[in-house]
Design a protein that fits this description.
The complex is a heterodimer.
Chain A (H helix, E strand, L loop, with lengths): L7 H10 L11 H5 L10 H10 L9 H4 L5 H5 L6 H13 L19 H11 L2
Helix pairs in contact in A: 1-6
Chain B lengths: L3 E6 L9 H13 L2 E5 L21 H13 L7 E4 L2 H16 L1 H10 L11 E4 H9 L1 H7 L2 E2 L4 E5 L20 H8 L3 E2 L18 H17 L4 E4 L2 H13 L1 H4 L5 E4 H9 L7 H8 L3 E2 L4
Parallel strand pairs in B: 1-2, 1-3, 3-4, 6-7, 6-8, 8-9
Antiparallel strand pairs in B: 5-10
The chains are: A mainly alpha, B alpha/beta.
C-alpha cells in the first residue's frame, strides 16, 4: 500500500478535540505510562504518529477502544497534547459514521454488569 | 466546624449495587455533623465525560443536575454539590470546570435547556473525601474513632477519576496522599504500593474481561503478597472490577482474603457503625480489631 502523507486526519482530530498532534515529538511517555498497552496492537505514541502522517491505520487500531480515558498520558505529556481527547476524536470519527464498536442488543448476561459499566460502554462504543 | 447541610448527588450505583457506599457515607457524615441532603429529581450524570469539544449532547444530563442543584441550594445555605461515586464526581466537576472557562458552552447549554432556569455556574462540585479533609478535618475524625484498628493493613486505591485530569483533581495526580491520611486518622496502617492511581480497566469489563484480569493482577498482586487486609476505594466501578478480577485471576494470584471496601466503610468500621458496612467485609475485618476503652 502506498502511503500519501496527508494532514486530513490530523485536521479531523483537531476539529473534534482541539488537539494539535503535530506538537508531539514522539518521546513515548504516553505509552510508557499507559496501563493497557499489554493489550494494544499499536501503542499510543504510534497512533499519534499515524495521525501525524495521515495513516488511517490509526482508525483500525484496537488501542483507541482499549483506552478508557484514565488521563495518565494527558497529565504527563510534556508537549501538552491531551491524548485522551485525541483517542476520543478517533473513536468519534468512526462512531459518527454510524459504525458502532459493539451491538448493545447482542450483549449477553446484562444483569451481571453494573449500570455504571453498561452506560459508560454504550457511550464510548456506540454513536 | 458546626453542623452543616450539604447537597448530595448519589448517582445510579449507590442506589443499586453500591448501597453500602451510600449508607456508610450518610451515617459517617451524620457522626461528623454533616447532613447529606439528596438532590431532588437527580438524573444520570452520563458516567463518562464527553471529551469532544465540538459536541454538547453528552453534557445535557449532568447540566440538568447542576440546574437542580442550583434550585436547591437554599436548603443547605451553601453552594456545594457533593458526590461519592468518583465517576459522577468527574463528570459533574469536569463539566462545571469547562462551563467556568467556556462561556459559549454555558450559553449554548442554557439555550438548549429552554424549559429550565439558566445555570449560573455557581455550584461547587466536591467529592466527599475532600469535604472530610478540608471542611471536617482528619483531626476531628480521629476524635470519633471508637476502635483500635492498628492491626489492619489497608491499601488506598485511588483509581483515575478523583486525581485526573489536573483541572478537577482533589489531590496531586501523581502522588496523592489524602487516603493515606484518612487511613492514619482511623489508626490503621496505610500500605504503600506502586499502582494505586492506575486504571482498573473501567468499562472494558463489558467487552474484554482479560483487561480487568490483567489490571487486577498488577494492582492487587503486590498487596496480596504483603498480606494486606483491605483495599479502600472511592469508585463503585473500581470495586466491581477489582472483585471481578480477583475471581478471574484466582489461579495466578493465589488464595487471598483481601477485601475491597469503600473508604466510607472503613470510617464506619472505626466509628462503630457496623450496620452500614458490607456484612462479609465486616466479619472478615472484625476479628482483627479491638474496642477501645474510654477510661
Amino acid at each position: 500500500m502506498r502511503l500519501i502523507i496527508s494532514d486530513e486526519l490530523a485536521k479531523d482530530v483537531y476539529r473534534i478535540s482541539g488537539q494539535n498532534v503535530y506538537a508531539c515529538y514522539q518521546c513515548g511517555k504516553c505509552s510508557g505510562g499507559c496501563p493497557v498497552i499489554s493489550e494494544m496492537d499499536y501503542l499510543p505514541n504510534q497512533v499519534i504518529h499515524m495521525i501525524q502522517i495521515g495513516d488511517e491505520t490509526a482508525l483500525k487500531a484496537n488501542a483507541i477502544w482499549l483506552c478508557a480515558s484514565c488521563f495518565t498520558c494527558t497529565i504527563r505529556c510534556p508537549r501538552g497534547v491531551d491524548l485522551a481527547k485525541v483517542m476520543e476524536a478517533l473513536r468519534l470519527i468512526i462512531l459518527r459514521k454510524g459504525i458502532n464498536r459493539i451491538d448493545l442488543r447482542k450483549l449477553k448476561n446484562l444483569h451481571e454488569y453494573p449500570q455504571i459499566a453498561l452506560i459508560a460502554a454504550s457511550r464510548k462504543y456506540t454513536g | 466546624m458546626r453542623n452543616m447541610k450539604l447537597l448530595y448527588f448519589p448517582g445510579c450505583s449507590l442506589k443499586n449495587f453500591a448501597q453500602s457506599y451510600e449508607k456508610s457515607a450518610i451515617a459517617v457524615a451524620k457522626e461528623l455533623g454533616i447532613e447529606l441532603v439528596e438532590l431532588n429529581r437527580w438524573n444520570c450524570c452520563g458516567v463518562v465525560y464527553g471529551l469532544a469539544s465540538d459536541s454538547f449532547a453528552h453534557y445535557v444530563g449532568a447540566f440538568r443536575d447542576l440546574i437542580r442543584a442550583q434550585q436547591q441550594v437554599n436548603e443547605t445555605g451553601n453552594e456545594y454539590l457533593v458526590a461519592l461515586c468518583s465517576m459522577c464526581y468527574q463528570v459533574l466537576s469536569s463539566l462545571n470546570y469547562r462551563l467556568s472557562i467556556d462561556r459559549e458552552a454555558l450559553d449554548r447549554l442554557n439555550r438548549f435547556m429552554d424549559d429550565e432556569e439558566d445555570y449560573l455556574g455557581t455550584i461547587q462540585v466536591e467529592h466527599f473525601l475532600k469535604i472530610l479533609a478540608d471542611l471536617v478535618g482528619f483531626d476531628k475524625i480521629k476524635t470519633k474513632v471508637k476502635r483500635d484498628l492498628s492491626e489492619l493493613k489497608i491499601a488506598p486505591y485511588y483509581g483515575c477519576m478523583l486525581v485526573r485530569p489536573k483541572e478537577i483533581a482533589i489531590d496531586d495526580p501523581e502522588d496523592p496522599t489524602i487516603m493515606e491520611k484518612l487511613i492514619e486518622a482511623v489508626g490503621a496502617e496505610p500500605v504503600s504500593y506502586p499502582f494505586r492511581t492506575e486504571c482498573c480497566g473501567s468499562y472494558n469489563v463489558v467487552v474484554n474481561k482479560d483487561v480487568i484480569k490483567e489490571r487486577t493482577k498488577k494492582i492487587l498482586g503486590p498487596l496480596i503478597k504483603k498480606n494486606v487486609d483491605a483495599v479502600i476505594t472511592v469508585c463503585p466501578l473500581c470495586k466491581f472490577n477489582l472483585e471481578q478480577g480477583l475471581k478471574l485471576a484466582r489461579d495466578e494470584l493465589g488464595q487471598s482474603n483481601i477485601k475491597i471496601l469503600y473508604f466510607t466503610e472503613l470510617l464506619a468500621l472505626a466509628i462503630g457503625l457496623d450496620d452500614t458496612i458490607d456484612k462479609e467485609a465486616l466479619e472478615s475485618l472484625k476479628v482483627k480489631i479491638k474496642e477501645k476503652n474510654d477510661s
